[in-house]
Structures
1.
Amino acid sequence: MRPRPKETGFSLIEVLIAMSVLAVMALSLIGVLVHGLNLLARTKQIILATQICQEQIESIRNKPFDAIANLGSTYANDKLSALLNGQGNQAIESSVGSDIRKLTVSVAWNFHGQAMRKDVVTLITRAGIDKK
């Protein structure tokens, strides 16, 4: 009779420990993935809000200087509907000088129950851009 070879393999306890370690690692990776996807969605909305603000600023810059003082406090843009409860606001300040107006354009929206806001501020002169 030959001696029986020593059986090799994993015991039940070793398999359970390995599965537990893998489960903890998988849950950690899922948490990181969910956080990354939320961050990506938030960043996309901030970029869209910035683009909406820039479009509104360019629209106002194309108006005559004296006409911008009579603008309302809100504006409409088709892209605002892509943001939850998206609202466009604008404010014109003439306290900077007689030939300079401070324009603040903002977009406000909700993201996962949190109020978000993007403001873009610029100065508009009577002479126009890059003119002294």
Note: Residues 12-61 form the longest helix (50 residues).
2.
Amino acid sequence: MNPQREQFLNLKATPARLTAEEAAWCLGFGSHEIPILVAKGLLKPLGRPPANGVKYFAATALAELREDIKWLTRASDVIVEHWRYKNAQKTDAMRGSSPIRHNSTIALT
């Protein structure tokens, strides 16, 4: 385990505002998966950060999501679907065929 991650997870009191990397540690996702969850509307950053700016997340909201099995299931399914689509695009590009259309079957409600 990453020493920084281990140190963060062992804090008695976490900061109220967490970076994307800290949010990933808190939720058990990879830091590269947080932008996917934000894009799909499953995770909302604080305020109105610019598209290329640092995004912060409320620790209290993340604590609630950690306990929500339905949300964790949806988030996990969205990540799997994202990578399935990306890998299919890569495979199609290598074969020279036209890319498939992305029709997500995962309900976000």
Note: The chain has five helices and two strands.
3.
Amino acid sequence: MVNRDRHEITFEILSKSISGKRRTELMREVGLSFSQSSKYLPELTKKELLEMDKRGCYQTTKKGVEFLEKCKVCPLFGWEKRLKHK
């Protein structure tokens, strides 16, 4: 797996969590270790970009979806170019 920066990891977590994912499923799909998930998930929840629903699944909040939309058009990160290649 290619080294990713924290912005790419955050973007992937929020993208995969739109429909709601359990922690282990999210870790597998994003390619996170347990220690990485222990760092990112609470931080994104604290910033109100992610929330945990009644089933114990992480889900991207409205604020998180808005963040994703802004990332997609940000010329500094070239998100659109990267998304087209995936």
Note: The CA atoms of residues 41 and 50 lie 8 Å apart.
